[in-house]
TrEMBL record:
Recorded coiled-coil stretches: none
Domain Thioredoxin positions: 2-146
Family: Belongs to the peroxiredoxin family. BCP/PrxQ subfamily.
GO MF term (any one): thioredoxin peroxidase activity
Name this polypeptide is given: thioredoxin-dependent peroxiredoxin
Catalytic activity as recorded in UniProt: a hydroperoxide + [thioredoxin]-dithiol = an alcohol + [thioredoxin]-disulfide + H2O
Gene Ontology biological process: cell redox homeostasis; cellular response to oxidative stress
Keyword vocabulary terms for this entry: Antioxidant, Disulfide bond, Oxidoreductase, Peroxidase, Redox-active center
One cellular component (GO) term of this entry: cytoplasm
EC number: 1.11.1.24
Superkingdom as given in the UniProt entry: Archaea
UniProt entry tagged with the keyword Cell division: no
Length: 147
Protein backbone atom coordinates (compact mmCIF):
# COMPACT_ATOMS: atom_id res chain seq x y z
CA UNK A 1 0.00 0.00 0.00
CA UNK A 2 1.22 3.50 -0.78
CA UNK A 3 1.84 5.88 2.09
CA UNK A 4 1.71 9.64 2.64
CA UNK A 5 4.94 11.04 1.24
CA UNK A 6 5.17 8.48 -1.57
CA UNK A 7 5.19 9.42 -5.22
CA UNK A 8 1.72 8.72 -6.59
CA UNK A 9 1.57 5.65 -8.81
CA UNK A 10 0.76 6.64 -12.39
CA UNK A 11 -2.12 4.77 -13.99
CA UNK A 12 -4.11 4.66 -17.17
CA UNK A 13 -7.72 3.72 -17.65
CA UNK A 14 -10.89 4.39 -19.61
CA UNK A 15 -13.03 7.34 -18.52
CA UNK A 16 -16.80 7.75 -18.48
CA UNK A 17 -16.75 8.96 -22.09
CA UNK A 18 -14.85 5.91 -23.31
CA UNK A 19 -11.61 7.86 -23.75
CA UNK A 20 -8.17 6.80 -22.62
CA UNK A 21 -7.15 8.54 -19.40
CA UNK A 22 -3.66 8.90 -17.98
CA UNK A 23 -2.87 10.37 -14.58
CA UNK A 24 0.46 11.65 -15.91
CA UNK A 25 -1.43 14.20 -18.05
CA UNK A 26 -2.49 15.98 -14.83
CA UNK A 27 0.60 15.59 -12.65
CA UNK A 28 2.47 18.85 -12.17
CA UNK A 29 -0.55 20.92 -13.20
CA UNK A 30 -3.12 20.29 -10.47
CA UNK A 31 -3.68 18.87 -7.04
CA UNK A 32 -5.44 15.59 -7.72
CA UNK A 33 -8.05 13.74 -5.69
CA UNK A 34 -8.24 10.06 -6.59
CA UNK A 35 -11.09 8.46 -4.72
CA UNK A 36 -11.99 4.79 -4.85
CA UNK A 37 -15.58 3.85 -4.16
CA UNK A 38 -17.56 0.59 -4.20
CA UNK A 39 -20.34 1.04 -6.77
CA UNK A 40 -22.16 3.62 -8.88
CA UNK A 41 -25.63 4.79 -7.84
CA UNK A 42 -25.66 3.16 -4.38
CA UNK A 43 -26.64 5.29 -1.37
CA UNK A 44 -23.18 5.83 0.14
CA UNK A 45 -21.39 6.23 -3.18
CA UNK A 46 -24.00 8.72 -4.37
CA UNK A 47 -23.56 10.77 -1.19
CA UNK A 48 -19.79 10.75 -1.65
CA UNK A 49 -19.92 11.72 -5.33
CA UNK A 50 -22.47 14.46 -4.68
CA UNK A 51 -20.37 15.88 -1.84
CA UNK A 52 -17.44 16.24 -4.25
CA UNK A 53 -19.85 17.78 -6.80
CA UNK A 54 -21.29 20.20 -4.25
CA UNK A 55 -17.77 21.38 -3.35
CA UNK A 56 -16.55 21.49 -6.95
CA UNK A 57 -16.12 25.29 -7.05
CA UNK A 58 -14.05 25.25 -3.86
CA UNK A 59 -11.89 22.44 -5.22
CA UNK A 60 -11.41 24.18 -8.56
CA UNK A 61 -10.38 27.40 -6.78
CA UNK A 62 -7.71 25.33 -5.00
CA UNK A 63 -6.38 24.03 -8.38
CA UNK A 64 -7.75 20.57 -7.67
CA UNK A 65 -9.32 17.99 -9.95
CA UNK A 66 -11.27 14.91 -8.87
CA UNK A 67 -11.08 11.42 -10.30
CA UNK A 68 -13.50 8.76 -9.08
CA UNK A 69 -12.52 5.11 -9.58
CA UNK A 70 -14.68 1.99 -9.29
CA UNK A 71 -15.00 -1.34 -11.07
CA UNK A 72 -18.25 -0.28 -12.76
CA UNK A 73 -18.26 -0.28 -16.55
CA UNK A 74 -18.22 2.83 -18.75
CA UNK A 75 -22.00 2.83 -19.35
CA UNK A 76 -22.67 2.69 -15.61
CA UNK A 77 -20.27 5.60 -15.06
CA UNK A 78 -21.85 7.59 -17.87
CA UNK A 79 -25.35 7.11 -16.41
CA UNK A 80 -24.20 7.86 -12.84
CA UNK A 81 -22.41 11.02 -13.97
CA UNK A 82 -25.42 12.25 -15.95
CA UNK A 83 -28.01 11.40 -13.28
CA UNK A 84 -26.20 13.43 -10.60
CA UNK A 85 -24.51 16.09 -12.82
CA UNK A 86 -21.05 15.06 -11.67
CA UNK A 87 -18.46 17.50 -13.07
CA UNK A 88 -15.44 15.23 -12.63
CA UNK A 89 -13.89 12.19 -14.29
CA UNK A 90 -14.97 8.64 -13.48
CA UNK A 91 -12.59 5.81 -14.37
CA UNK A 92 -13.60 2.21 -14.99
CA UNK A 93 -11.31 -0.22 -13.17
CA UNK A 94 -13.03 -3.50 -14.02
CA UNK A 95 -9.91 -5.61 -13.44
CA UNK A 96 -9.11 -3.70 -10.21
CA UNK A 97 -5.52 -3.01 -11.34
CA UNK A 98 -5.66 0.64 -10.24
CA UNK A 99 -7.05 -0.37 -6.84
CA UNK A 100 -4.22 -2.87 -6.40
CA UNK A 101 -1.62 -0.32 -7.52
CA UNK A 102 -2.73 2.02 -4.72
CA UNK A 103 -3.33 -0.72 -2.17
CA UNK A 104 -7.03 0.13 -2.07
CA UNK A 105 -8.23 -3.40 -2.68
CA UNK A 106 -10.03 -5.46 -0.07
CA UNK A 107 -11.46 -8.93 0.36
CA UNK A 108 -15.21 -8.37 0.56
CA UNK A 109 -16.64 -4.90 -0.03
CA UNK A 110 -14.42 -2.58 -2.09
CA UNK A 111 -12.79 0.05 0.11
CA UNK A 112 -13.89 3.67 0.16
CA UNK A 113 -10.55 5.46 0.23
CA UNK A 114 -9.37 8.86 -0.96
CA UNK A 115 -5.87 9.97 -1.95
CA UNK A 116 -4.80 13.59 -2.33
CA UNK A 117 -1.83 14.12 -4.62
CA UNK A 118 -0.09 17.49 -4.67
CA UNK A 119 1.20 19.26 -7.79
CA UNK A 120 4.59 17.59 -7.33
CA UNK A 121 2.97 14.17 -7.57
CA UNK A 122 3.36 13.31 -3.89
CA UNK A 123 0.56 11.72 -1.85
CA UNK A 124 -0.26 14.16 0.95
CA UNK A 125 -3.43 12.55 2.33
CA UNK A 126 -4.86 9.06 2.54
CA UNK A 127 -8.32 8.97 4.05
CA UNK A 128 -10.37 5.83 4.54
CA UNK A 129 -13.88 5.89 5.95
CA UNK A 130 -16.42 3.36 4.75
CA UNK A 131 -19.36 4.62 6.80
CA UNK A 132 -19.23 8.41 6.38
CA UNK A 133 -18.85 9.04 2.64
CA UNK A 134 -19.38 12.82 2.90
CA UNK A 135 -16.35 13.15 5.19
CA UNK A 136 -13.94 12.47 2.33
CA UNK A 137 -14.35 15.87 0.68
CA UNK A 138 -14.14 17.58 4.09
CA UNK A 139 -10.79 15.91 4.81
CA UNK A 140 -9.50 16.86 1.35
CA UNK A 141 -10.56 20.50 1.74
CA UNK A 142 -9.03 20.70 5.22
CA UNK A 143 -5.73 19.38 3.89
CA UNK A 144 -5.74 21.72 0.88
CA UNK A 145 -6.50 24.72 3.10
CA UNK A 146 -3.88 23.65 5.63
CA UNK A 147 -6.35 23.30 8.51
Amino acid sequence: MVKVGDKAPVFEGIDDSGNKFSLKDFLGKYNIVVYFYPKDDTPGCTKEACSFRDNWDLLKNLDTIVIGVSSDDIDSHKNFKKKYSLPFILISDKDKKIRKLYGADSFLIPSRITYLINKEGIITLIYKNQLNPQSHVIEVLNKLKGT
